[in-house]
Amino acid sequence: MHARQVLLGLLVATAAAVSRAAAPEAALVHAAADQARLHEDPQWAALLHVDGTRPAIPDPGFLLSQPHFSPSAELHATIDVLYGGEGALAARCRFPARFLWLQARLSDGNADLDHCQDWVDFRTRAPAETVSLVFASEHLSQPASMLGHLFLRLEGQRTDGQRVAHALSFYTDPVSFNIPKLVYDGLVGGMAGYFSLSPFEREVALYVGEEQRNLWIYPLKLDATQRTLFQAHAIELKQTRFRYLFQSHNCATLVWQMLAAAQPALLAHRQAWTTPKDVLRSADAAGLLDTPTTLTASRWALRLLADGLPSLEAIQVRQMVLNDHLPAPETLSRQPERAFLQRQLAGAYNRYLVDQGQRRAEHGVAYAAQLDTLDALRFSGWQARSAPHRDPAQSPPDSQWSAGWLWRDGHHWTQWRWLPTSHGLEDDNRSYFSENSLQLMDLSLLVAPRGDAVRLERATLYSVASLLPRDVFTGGLSGRMRIGIDQQPDRDLRARHAMLVDGALGATWRVQTDIDVFALAGGGLGWRGGAYVFGAPQVGMLVREVGGMKSSATLTALVNAAGSGQQAWEARWTQSVPLGATWAAVAEWSRLWQGNGKAAREAWAVHVKKVF
Fold it and tell me: Residue 414 class from Cβ within 10 Å (0-12 exposed, 13-18 middle, 19+ buried)?
């Protein structure tokens, strides 16, 4: 045994001799904690949700040393309430994880919390024989979950023998349709955050059924002691007030801190800007993740299965389901493999109709029974190929920087870009539901080769785009939205900065497996010494090429850009080439010209990108 452990044990034994029915007195615990420098323990910082010295949860009901917080001050304030007299028992019910952690560090086995009704009720209601991370795929139409959502699943057997599963989740509920205000509150002002426990089946119905998002469930490799500490910390958070911020205190950061409190090895994989996928990658690197299972949304399954049939045949399957028919007898006899694919597609569409409320549940059950009967008669022993899920824990990182060269208007510039979150259309999007981009706090600067001039090229607060291909079963809209400062051409096609809030809606068509074409009707509001309205309809094509390469071409009509009162056109081509798992080279060309053909400007750029 180490000398420090011997000292702690002697201190505890001394206190026990004074009062064997009570925990060590506060003075002795203070001395032991100072000797062991427990305030520097990374697990203590995780229990406090502290990054460095800055607390993420400033609620004075959670941090006892406010407004003069420090990890050391909080440790001593905690010891005072946990070991300091008549209120100690109640304080242990408020901070059960801190109490368990201190008792473990003091090598004291007396960590009884059975007098805490919330603790007993929580462990009875939501046993945690298994704790899992659950990732809900991205839903780019909902700002609160634009990076996906991460929550926890507790599963175990209750005392009555029933196995139950519950979801433990941190979220916000944006009720405003004022998008600029929503983005400001989410990034700067903060929104009310909620910490909830609910039946896991309810979350499956919400995410997989109603919102059509896939769920990945990762069991965590935690022992019984770690799971108990995890549950105790959940009790502490249940009684705490939160502020939700997309970039700094969200579902990912809270879950990450909760896991770090149970397993400090996770702290070695700290991220500057934490997203749900960052937590998955960090937990995987720390050896915490077990083999995941997937709950697939019917819309996702529909799109996957429909890709295996010609469009006309997919339309026929749709009509077949709507009429409660089965695959034609001649197809069953002559082309059984195709009939089996039709049957699988019919089952997915039937489930989708029920999920979306377009078919009554009893109607869906009756048609599913017909399909089951067909399986027994014609497809006994047949199995559908499993869907090639892209594990989010293995997805590309969410942050990137790039450096390169730009030639425009006869001038050369070096180009520097920092994107803390997340990716562009030119990036590898195969792990997403469709081609899309998401950019938070994107900053691009131009620096003269001699370093004697620096210019802002672009500063994006929030930008999102989704090119969801249409299909015969679910339709599908494409669109984009942006809030930030960007350049627009004036009447002489010179680049002028303006504050922009704009968007677009349209459609995308997958004309071949690796080729998408799209058309978007767009426009917005600009401010440059005064407000103006502009239009920006766009058509384009995106091609996924061999070796992970990707190219895109767009043509945009700019109407009254920069308040010019003129119409201009912009053609743009982009080519990206991967240079390994985390590097890529990107080339861009653009040409601006006026509708009357009197003026034109070109630009070329090449840069190297690093994702991390």
Answer: middle
Give 116-141 pLDDT, tens digit per residue.
Answer: 999 999 999 999 999 999 999 877 55
CB hemisphere CA count around 177 (13 angstroms) = 0
DSSP for 308-360?
TS-HHHHHHHHHHHHTT----HHHHHH-HHHHHHHHHHHHHHHHHHHHTTSS-
pTM here? 0.84
End-to-end CA distance of the chain: 41
Q: What is the 3-state secondary structure (H, E, C) of 60-86?
A: CCCCCCCCCCCHHHHHHHHHHHHHCCC
For 544, residues 6+ apart whose C-beta sits below 8 A from its C-beta are: 514, 515, 550
Closest CA to 585 of 567, 603, 608, 568: 608
CA distances from 591 to 214, 442, 508, 565, 599 (A): 40, 23, 24, 20, 11
Phi, psi torsion values for 360, nearest 5 degrees: -65, 150
Q: What is the pLDDT of residues 192-250, one digit of tens each?
A: 777 889 999 999 999 999 888 999 999 999 999 999 999 999 999 988 888 777 666 67
Three-state DSSP at 150 gives strand
Contacts of 85 by beta carbon, 8 Å cutoff, 6+ apart = none
**E strand map for 92-239:** 130-136, 149-157, 163-172, 191-199, 215-219
In Å, what is the CA distance from 226 to each residue of 66, 131, 221, 292?
28, 10, 10, 20
| Residue 431 to residue 476: CA distance in whole angstroms | 19
CA angle 141, 143, 148 (to 5 degrees): 80
Alpha carbons 564 and 547: distance in angstroms, whole number = 43
Distance in angstroms (rounded) separating the CA atoms of residues 151 and 341 = 34
